[in-house]
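The pair is set out directly below:
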Amino acid sequence: MSSLDRAHHAQGGSADPDGNALNPVTKEEKSWGWFAIFNIWANDIQSLFGYTLVASLFISYGVGGWTAFAALIAAGLFVMWMVNLSGAPGEKYGIPYPVLARASLGTQGGKLPAILRATVAVFWFGVQVHFASTALSLLIRSLTGVQDTSMIFGMSGVDWLSFVLVWLFHILIFWRGMGWVETFLNIAGPFVYAVMIGLLIVLWNKSDGQLLSATATIFVNPEGTFWTELKGFVAIVGTMVAYFAAVMINFSDFSRYAKDKPTMIKGNLTGLPLNMILFSALALLTTGGAAVVYGEALVNPTEIVERTDSVLLSVIAAITFFAATVGINLVANFIPAVNGIASLAPERIGFRKAGLITAGFALVIGGFWTGFISNFGIDGFVNTLGATLAPLFGIMIVDYYVHRRQHLDLNDLYDMAGGRYHYENGWNSAAVKAFVAAAVFSVLTVWVPWFSFLSGYNWIIGAVLGGALMHVFTRQPVRA
């Protein structure tokens, strides 16, 4: 019996929600169509932060609106190409990112990128649970009119009730398995778009038909030159690539559920460029409408809703913000956190147990975010971990496509005691050296002010550097 067969036998196969989260998915589990992949990106883009980021790009980079819009589309196409590369082995072999990482860094070394990605994901999972609970808190206050002034760790009783309910809601979804995750994403993505269009219609009516003319002014930059436009174009592309960087590295966590490779490619094609076009257009038009109606460029949708002074719209908006935040939390944070934690001891930590560990961290991080954790400047620590993911992406891509010519031995990936991916006691020294050298550069871009001019492109440079060093340090690339 092979190591992979033994893993399936011991854990009951990956179809069991309480089984080994890292086992290859079964043929029956490869059920996600292109629309499910499309909604991964819809939910990743539709967060409150995503709206604010996209809306602000049109007025913050000193470029014309058409330049900004073209940059967003270019970024979508570039990210699509990158996730097709990183997602292909997951789709082909049905494996998640922590297992794929074993091929390049070793059966033990693969735990390093998995836990780095998981640490970043766990932190942001807790923070996003907190922000999703603010939407529920808004909903409760809109419906009841309750005013709760008693504060505990920076949150009122309504805030704490909302936080616990949202926290339990996340547990309910993952406890039922990936099928429920897919269902929620498929509902949340189209729903958020429907409400955004509704908000746009409200602003259109309030602007007396001036919305398009106001939006046209955002597309004009009379002081722009070719070089300022080009510089802004490159900066926006870099910013948006960095925004999607975390999901790019572990996209195999999702692509492994795709029915086949054409389905994954179609889902990424519609999900990235199309979502970028649709979401950016809605953000632009909504920002233009708000400028006409309220006399200023509001880039935060919550501020626009507050100005409407409508209880009904506040209720709808609260539900929308909740769906959008939970959606991105499942995509960008929960799944990589679960798989990363499970990789530490896959024989003892199954999908549900890893999910409960993630939820436990979220309870602490999210519950004490306002009154305690946010005051400690912990974002520097998290950004440092995030920066180290860039070289790991390059290492993974060079190893799979250049050294192994897109061929892996599935049994050896699950053989933790030997096999071709065990290297030196489970660590591939060439990949480790490439990671350390490239990671030094990535970390410097976070902490050294001199490197601030690379803001936006540092992730791409780090990935290229990691891949190049991996190729240099690997004297004799091994096939398979």
Summary: The CA atoms of residues 195 and 316 lie 8 Å apart.
